[in-house]
Amino acid sequence: MKRRIITTADGSKTIQIEDWDEQYHSKHGAVQEAYHVFIDHGLRLFKDTYIKILEIGFGTGLNALITLLEKEKLSLNIDYVGVEAFPVSLEEVQQLDYCKQLKTAQSQMIFERMHKSPWEKRVKIGPNFSLEKQQKDFKSIDDTNLFNLIYFDAFGARVQPELWTEDIFSKMYRALMDGGVLVTYSAKGSVRRALQTVGFSVERLPGPPGKREMLRATKK
User: CB atoms < 10 A from the CB of 76, how many?
Assistant: First the structure.
């Protein structure tokens, strides 16, 4: 499928899949969405501890990069697992230029190290931050009671409805420890109902720019 780099409303870039008219991040602001959904309503629930994060849709690595940049403020030690079926190329990563947008040019080498690190291997990326990228279909996830936080950042239900089903969310529920949290940009009623059906307690929260709401789900 044809892909191209586009600039979003906050000046940051993302990848657009033209055949689907779908982006890796919101056209209303890639960086703003990442901070609002995954950091402000996910990561910042945790402080002064060790946590394990699962990202569904590692994609451009933006969420992982911002998580690494924010961990010092929260005194976190993080093990980060990013699942991705179709990895982004290093050439695309360099064109996205996220470190410049985030005003952290010194982190460019770290960001590229994330993408150059081998798949299926846990790698120390920086102090108190390790990364394991797993190249596989989301349906093959079978972890149990392993993660504190899930960033659910799959492509939207309009183009990949099979990723937003009770079957997938039951896998997410099993993968979380008790009290663990899943955050996602989606606020579709069908997504909320699927999360509730598999056992999550679900909150509607104010959404990022361009979206009225988002969802946060907690394992009871």
Answer: 20
DSSP assignment of 73-94:
HHTEEEEEEEE-SSPPPHHHHH
CA 220 to CA 201: how far, in whole Å? 7
pLDDT in tens, 165-195: 999 999 999 999 999 999 999 999 999 999 9
Domain range for 199 = 29-219
Single-letter residue type at 57: G
Whichever domain contains 43, its CATH number is: 3.40.50.150
* Average pLDDT taken over every residue of the chain: 96
16 bridge partner residues: 4, 23
171-199: b (≥16 Cβ within 10 Å) or e: bbbbbbeeebbbbbbbbbeebbebbeebe
Cut 0.85: pTM above it: yes
- CB-neighbour burial class of residue 120 (10 A; exposed 0-12, middle 13-18, buried 19+): exposed
Domain tally, the chain: 1
Residue with tokens 């410049």: 100
